[in-house]
Amino acid sequence: MTVVILGWATSAQSTEAQSVPTKPSPLLTTPPLVNPAPFTLSDALAGLSTSAQYRQAQLALSTAHAQLQAAQANLGPTAGVNGSVSLASGSSTATNGTVSSSTDLSISAGASVSLPVLPWSAAQTAARAYAVARATFAQTSAALTASTELAFAP
Question: Rounded CA gap, 118 and 114, in Å?
Answer without folding.
Answer: 12
